[in-house]
Every structure is written in structure tokens, then in C-alpha cells.
Amino acid sequence: MTRFASAQTIAQDIRSGKRSAASVMQAVLATIHQYDSSIGSVTHLFAEQAMQQAHAVDARLARKEELPPLAGVPFGVKDLFDIQGHVTTAGSIVLRNVPPAAQDAAIVARLRAAGAIPVATLNMDEFAYGFATDNAHYGITRNPHDPSRMAGGSSGGSAAAVAAGLLPLTLGTDTNGSIRVPASLCGVWGLKPTMGLLPREGAYPFSASLDVVGHFASTLDDLKTAFHIMADTSPEPEPQTLRTACLGGWFAQNLSPALAAAINRVCRYLGLSGTVELPQTPTARAASFLITAAEGGTLHLPRLRSVAQDYDPATRDRLLAGAMLPASTYVQAQRFRRWFRGQVHALFEQVDVLIAPAVMCEAPLLDAPTIIVDGKPASARANLGLYTQPLSLPGLPVLCLPLLNTNTLPLGLQLVAAPGREAALFSLARKLEQAGLAGRCPLPATQQAA
User: How much of the chain, in percent, has pLDDT values that exceed 70?
Assistant: First the structure.
């Protein structure tokens, strides 16, 4: 059965002749047509091209050619990655008349070279500015675990497509939490790699000094395999001994009871007692917000001067506010960033992996989009990044893993390491998976049959 099958299972079935790539692709397209109407993750299907590429994989197999590692595996892309011959909209109608992309985005090209086949573009907050994937032009992406709730954003379509079993692998971007927030709310694996490790060419920018390209997967093995393909690196041995610590202070406040209990279970399993704290975390969050606003506003200001009416009003207002920030504010935020980065990097001289919550609670309701912050209801859209935004500043790799056995809708955990230390993240994630504490959250039976 293709739905919920991992990328590695699909690739192995095709390579062994158990299934043809064409039959896999037909099943994937049928699944999208059947299930996506209730969640709204897909904005464009490349059905004809995908079938042609699947037939080409089968032809190579018939000629007894050696197949690349992901031959025939379907994947989707957040709708800001260039797909050759397709207009890249970045979730907006503002770009609808730009020329089609002349070539694939760099990481799309690397996945294609590994045999994977792009099937769809996926919904997002307009120009990646938001945590909700509530798009005025392309609609709302709903959480597959409960369609009355948020999928998170801005890469919500990418996370929801994996959670719903439509695709085993999808691409996203993360500036202030746009992979980590939806991965947490949708109960899938997500990775924001080290800043600059994966090429950003062909990904429509938001914040030049904070944007990171990454991905979602249905399994940890798929997450790791795709990472190394996109990074053009070979897997390192996963370290078996890791110094691990749990972040406290800012990261221990406002947790839902279920999330606090889940983090305690993880810490008990790892034998952790006590916590460590990052200095001036509220300022780090504010600096990340200001840098994003200023860089995004400056990028869009020339177009806002001519076609402001074509923007989603909420996006337009935030971009304009960012463009009007004084230069001195931006400079101060970047100065703080340099100091904060030094403080965080120094911490990794004593520890290999930090543990932190991803989002403080389960997915908020769409018609009541609030969460509890400091004991009071607060806007979910403004605060879902409470724990992800501070960790964006230092350029660290962060793996978001889905927690199991919480008796709630999905909850996620951030694993954080020093730059270039993704192997440590995969190692700790595997340990937690093997202990039954982490893994893709299964959909309720009602949603599997929806």
C-alpha cells in the first residue's frame, strides 16, 4: 500500500520489481485526489510529468540499469522552490506573471539526480511570513489529525502532506520555525539543517540572513537519507555517547501539562536531571523577529510600492512595518545576534545535544486560534514560534521529532546541536525512537478513512 509507505520502502519495492514506478505514481496521484480535499495541502500537481518520469524509471529497470537510491520516490515542494517550467508563486498571486523557472532549485535537482520525482507544490503562508498556512489566495491547510485545527506554518502544506500519507518526503524552509512548528503540530519528522549547509539557490527568499532550506519525512531513516542526498555528503557514523541537556528557563514556561509530562519522560529515559539556560532568550526571540521583519520588508518594498493591493492584507501590513524599521534597530539586532551566537556555541563545549519543546501545546483550533501564554489567551499566529525563534539566531541544526504516547494530538521536541553536527541529532533521535518515545504520529482511524 503506497499511503504511509516510507521513501525507502517505495524505492526498495521498485528496485526489486515488487512494484513498478508507474503503479506507485498512479497510487500516489489517486491518494492525493482522494484525501487532499479535506486538508488542502497541494497547490499544483505535476501529474503528467510525474507519470512520464515514473515510466522512465521502469524503462531503466527493464534495461537492467542500476537505479539511484530514490528512484521512483515521489516528493513534494513548498511552493517557493523552483521547478523547471513552472511559475514559482511563493504562495502569492503577486508573482503569477513572472516567467517559469528556467531550472530546478538546487536541492530539487539533487533529489531528482537521486531518482526522486517531484509530484506537487504545497501550500504555505504567503511569502513564508506566518505560522498558520492560512493563505488568502490558496486557502487554509488543515491538520490531518483534526481538520478543525491548524497545520502550522509557513511550511504547513509540506508537513500536512506527509502526515496525511500523501507523500513520504517534502521540502520546506525554516526562518523562525517554519519547519519545526508544522512538524510538531502535524506529528512528523522535520529538519532545519545547519545554516548554509544546504544550497538555497532557487528557493524564493524571505530573510536573507536567517532562511534555511530543509525537509519533512515520514520516518527518521527517510529524513537522514534525504538530508545527505541534498547536502551531497556521505552519512557519518552516529555517535553512541552523547552529552545531552534539557533547556530550562524560557523553554520550561507555558508548557501544556501533556508536553511537560512527555519531556519529563524523555529526560528520565536519558538520565537527565536539572536544566541549562540560554542567556537573554526573550531578547534573542525579539532580535530574530526584528531581523526577519526588516529583511523581508526591504526585499518586498519595491514591489509593494507598485502592487501592494495584490498582497494578502496581513502579509502586506507586516512587510510594510518591517520596511519602516530604523536601520539602527536592525544593526542592534544583528550585534546581539553575534553575541548570542557566541554564548550558545560556548555551551556546546560542554554538551552535544540540547532538548527543547517545539510548540507549547497541540494544534490550536482554526476558529479559535489562541494559545495560553503566561496564563492568558494569546494569538497563536504570533506565539507559535515562542520556542523556535530564539534558536534560529545562532544558525544551529535542529531536528524536530514527533513525540509518542502523549494521549493528545501531536506534540514535538526540538533536538539542537552545534553547526555541522547533524549526526548527533540523528543518533539521539534514533535512541528515542527505539525506546518508543518518538515516531510519526498515526492518524486517528476516522481520518485515515476520511
Answer: 99
The span from the CA of 172 to the CA of 81, in Å, is: 9
Q: Would you call 154 a catalytic residue per the annotation? A: yes
Mean of the per-residue pLDDT values of the chain: 96
H/E element, 379: strand 376-379
DSSP H helices in 204-358: 220-231, 257-270, 281-307, 313-323, 327-347
446 within 8 A of 147, measured Cβ to Cβ: no
Q: Give all domains of the chain, ordered by start, each with its CATH number.
A: 7-231 (3.90.1300.10), 244-428 (3.90.1300.10)
288 belongs to the catalytic site: no
Is there a catalytic annotation at residue 328? no
Neighbours of 52 (CB within 10 A): 13
Catalytic residue among 155, 178, 207, 218: 178
The residue type found at 433 is E
DSSP 219: S
Q: Assess whether pLDDT exceeds 70 at residue 118.
A: yes
Number of continuous H segments (helices) and E segments (strands) in the chain: 14, 16
| Res 444: pLDDT | 87
pTM tops 0.90, yes or no: yes
